[in-house]
Each structure stands twice: as C-alpha cells, then as structure tokens.
Amino acid sequence: MRALVTGTSGFVGSAVARRLAADGHDIRVLVRPTSDRRNLEGLSVEIVEGDLAQPETLKPAVAGCDAVFHVAADYRLWVPDGGASMYRANVDGTRDLIRAACDAGVSRFVYTSSVAVLYPLPGTGIADETSVATVDDMISHYKKSKFLAEEEVMRLVRDESVPVVIVNPSAPFGPRDIKPTPTGRIVLDAAKGRMPAYLDTGLNAVHVDDVAEGHILAYDKGEIGERYILGGDNMTLRDIIQTVTDHVGRSGPWLKLPRAPLLPVAWLAEKISRVSGREPVVTVDALKMAAKHMYYSSDKAREKLGYAPRPAARALTESADWYRDNGYL
Asked: Fewest 10 Å CB contacts: which of 8, 110, 228, 230?
C-alpha cells in the first residue's frame, strides 16, 4: 500500500507514519517547506512539500496513493488572528484534500478528528460517539474548527460518497512530542517541578502509539462515515501530574486552584500576548474548558476495531523519560 500521511512533522502524525513503516508500507508525507522535520528522522519516506492552505499543492501529494491518513491540524489553544488561519487549514484544507484524494482514485481515507468535537457530560460523566454537540458548545477556535471540519467530512460522505472513516483521539502522551503539544507541556512542566497547583478537571489520556494503532485498525476495519474514539484512561489533572512527579522523584501537586480568580489573569495574559506575539501562559478558553472533566469511552473502537490501549500511566512515564533523555529537563 502507498499511503499519504499528513501532519508527520507533528506528534500524532509521525506516530502514524512510524506504525505504517513498521508494516512495510510505502509512505509519502506532506510537509510545509518550513516544517520541523526532526520527527521524520530515521523514517524511509517520500517527502512532498505542500500546504493545506494551498490547494494546488495537494494533487501531487495524493497522486498514485491508495490511502490517505489526514492527521495534520493547526492545534493551538490561542491564536492571535481571530482563528482565520486555523479555519483555513482545519476546515477548508480538509475538504480540499479529500476532494483531491477522490479525484486521484484513493480508495480509503482516514480523517483524524478529535474528542473535542463531542459534548463532554456534566461532572465526571463519560461521553461516547453519540454525545452530540453543536458548534455553539465548542470553546476555542481549535474546537470550533475541528467541529466544522468533521461536519464537512460527514457532508462529503453523505453527498459525494467519499470513502472516509473518522477517528477521534483523546489527549495523547508519549515519546517524541518535540514541540511540545499542550498535553506534552503538562508532562514537561510537571517533570520540571513547575506544577505545584492544579485545577479540578480531568482528561482522557492515551499513549500516542495506541492512537497510531487505532488509525491502522480504522483503515482495516472501520465503516465509512463512522467515528471511533481512540482513548485510554480517564484521569484527573491532579492524578496526571502526580503520576509524572512520582516517576521523576519530585513532590506532587498540593494546591487546588479555583478557576474564577484566574479568569482576569488569563484575560490580561492574552492582551499582553497580542502585543508581544508570544503565547500566553494561561488562556480564557483553557480555563473555560477546565470547568468540565473531559472523560470519554473507547468501547466502540474496542468492540468494532479490536482497539486495545495500554495503561495511560505508561504513556505519561515514557513521555517524561523521553524529555529527560533528550535534554528538555
């Protein structure tokens, strides 16, 4: 199989490419000319330069491919331009890539969505693929862009019969999060002893290699037009931090912070960031999202795809070990 994988300069995309390479597939990757390519080191891949914001670059990328794994996304919790660039990449870019792939005769397309498009249940309720949300429920431009992108994918499946399977990863952790992503920063800051305090919130944590395996299972066994949550264990933020600090031999978090007093701080941080151009330490949207425990079930993927993730604690400790071994600490 010749497969195009997007997002391979990033955390999840590179994991998907490594998983495909392990099976001996012919891999082509789409990267921007300015992308950090460290995550491609050691991989035998064909590199095609292009950009989701430039539709004319997508046709050469999909030509001759049997499959496309569209993992790339603009994943930021704060953007200085009102989100225009994020919507262009995540929504329009996804539509343009799917159409280019279909025109090229690609037989199957796996689209990487997110659990962010699902409605988190109140309290510690556990959501699944049937937890319907609306765009008005989406907090942050990232979540809105991913919600609109998945809606566009489903419209293309319905109206244009495109062969797309959707996967919805939760919060990935593990080695090679070079940027790091917002989830990787939790591990990095905890390992450095910079998280003595925590908010009363929770995430579904999963090993990035299990997310990659889930993509392959979705390609092999998924039904067109269906979505599958690729998650791991539901954990409080405090337990996530504690797992990391225990592993590296630091003191765990001891101070529970209220959200309300932090909102003016976040508002001010964003104002300063619009002038400085640097990402704020805390954002209003992040605090709003922390009001809920973002817990999810992967039972559908387990039953239909044979998905079997390892304990999330292993993802957290392997992430901390990788940061230590690569000089981040």
From this structure: 110
Q: Which residues of 151-173 are buried (b: 16+ CB within 10 A; e: fewer)?
A: ebbbebbeeeebbbbbbbbbbbb
DSSP secondary structure of 298-311: -HHHHHHH---PPP
Contact 155, 225 (CB under 8 A): no
% helix, strand, coil for the chain, step of 5: 45, 20, 40
> What's the predicted TM-score (pTM) here?
0.91
Closest CA to 323 of 194, 157, 137: 194
User: How many whole angstroms separate alpha carbon 55 and alpha carbon 41?
Assistant: 27
CA pair distance 106, 65, nearest whole angstrom: 6
Pure H helices in 192-311? 208-221, 237-248, 262-276, 284-289, 299-305
Report domain extents, the chain. Answer: 2-173+206-232+295-310
Residue with tokens 């999060």: 177
Q: What angle do CA 118, 52, 33 make, to 5 degrees?
A: 130
| Closest of 12, 131, 1, 9 to residue 71, by C-alpha | 12
Report the DSSP pairing between strands 2-6 and 26-31: parallel
Per-residue pLDDT of the chain (329 residues; tens, 9 = 90+): 999 999 999 999 999 999 999 999 999 999 999 889 999 988 899 999 999 989 999 999 999 999 999 999 888 766 666 678 889 999 999 999 999 999 999 999 999 999 999 987 877 789 999 998 889 888 888 889 999 999 999 999 999 999 999 999 999 999 999 999 989 999 999 999 998 888 889 999 999 999 999 999 999 999 999 999 999 999 999 999 999 999 999 999 988 877 666 666 655 765 665 666 676 666 655 656 666 788 999 999 999 999 999 999 999 999 999 999 999 99
**Among 121, 118, 8, 19, CA closest to 73:** 8
- Residue 169's beta-bridge partner residues? 230
Question: Residue type for 319, please?
Answer: S
Q: Which residue from 73, 110, 68 is spatially nearest to 305, judged by alpha carbons? A: 110
Q: What is the CATH number of domain 2-173+206-232+295-310?
A: 3.40.50.720
